[in-house]
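The instructor's notes for this session suggest beginning with a concrete chain rather than abstract definitions. Hand out the sequence below and ask the class to guess, before any prediction is shown, which regions might be ordered.
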Amino acid sequence: MGYVEDLRKIVGHRPLILTGAVVIIVNPDGKVLLQQRKFPKDVWGLPGGLMELGESTEEAAKREVFEETRLQVCNLELMDVYSGSDFYVVAQNGDEYYSVTTVYTTSSYTGCLRADPEESIQCSFADPVNLPENMVGSHRFMIEEYVKRKT
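After discussion, reveal the predicted structure:
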């Protein structure tokens, strides 16, 4: 059982502040890695997830990317930290939370891309200006910000 699951046993569906990290992984063609998730079903997003106790956001980013994609990322560059009322979420199960998300970017990774069957349907690189329709809204915003900063 993880940290968030333990907290939920105590607080139920009430709002929590959850801290996590995502990584915008860019391949040599300038495409970004997306994960088609099982939860919420079929929605695309960036690889990443929530911190565990004692982790830094960078450690969480590296761990989550590896768990979800089997890629090892390095040379992470901090892009930004997103938080506030715009990042309030009600999950499908009724859990409420405000996310604090640290976004890293990198084009440095090793390994063979393989989606984790527990969490993902597939992982693939996509054109950052032609993203899938069914996507985590905050992740779309983060990629759009990335594109703006690169131009």
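Then share the key points. DSSP finds three helices and ten strands in the chain. Residues 3-150 form a domain with the Nucleoside Triphosphate Pyrophosphohydrolase fold (CATH 3.90.79.10).
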